[in-house]
What we know:
Blueprint: H1 2-13, E1 21-22, E2 25-27, E3 37-38, E4 44-47, E5 50-55, E6 64-68, E7 75-84, E8 89-98, E9 105-113, E10 120-123, E11 128-131, H2 135-141, E12 148-155, E13 158-163, E14 166-172, E15 183-188, E16 194-205, H3 206-213
Antiparallel strand pairs: 1-2, 2-16, 3-6, 4-5, 5-16, 6-15, 7-12, 7-16, 8-9, 8-15, 9-10, 10-11, 12-13, 13-14
Amino acid sequence: xxxxxxxxxxxxxxxxxxxxxxxxxxxxxxxxxxxxxxxxxxxxxxxxxxxxxxxxxxxxxxxxxxxxxxxxxxxxxxxxxxxxxxxxxxxxxxxxxxxxxxxxxxxxxxxxxxxxxxxxxxxxxxxxxxxxxxxxxxxxxxxxxxxxxxxxxxxxxxxxxxxxxxxxxxxxxxxxxxxxxxxxxxxxxxxxxxxxxxxxxxxxxxxxxxxxxx
Length: 214
């Protein structure tokens, strides 16, 4: 454990890496650049240390996704999310794949937006809600005009989600053919003008932790 952190710390100091690591995991976004990410930068920008998808100035023609270049399997992901606009919809993709020559991706999505917060959706694959968050629970904890803490944990076939510390999803995938690895992405949904803001994106690689324990 100490050796791995020391090496990663040296990489960061030398400017050879795009992430920083501490005892709580790896920061996937450095707050300043898109290093380690790929997507349509016509629809994503960096502002005040956050990734901002979309605009309040005009309609958004397509779903757009900013994806990590690296793939992940078992992990715990935490980040802060807020939206602006009256009908804004967005989400956090994981165990996801880019659809070749297309703006869409395919995979799991931790949903963001009025009526969707906290739920688990299957984007461009089964195209349905896999686990719906209880609306009364979400209503009690959601900060509509402020940052919300999202936590996503994937271990094998089990997927869990929390919104502002309250669990909203505990789902077990029954389809053995569904992939257990993929990229992580942030989304802005097509439609009315709107913005989705993401920051403090930190990942703990559970696969690596399990290997170290052995």
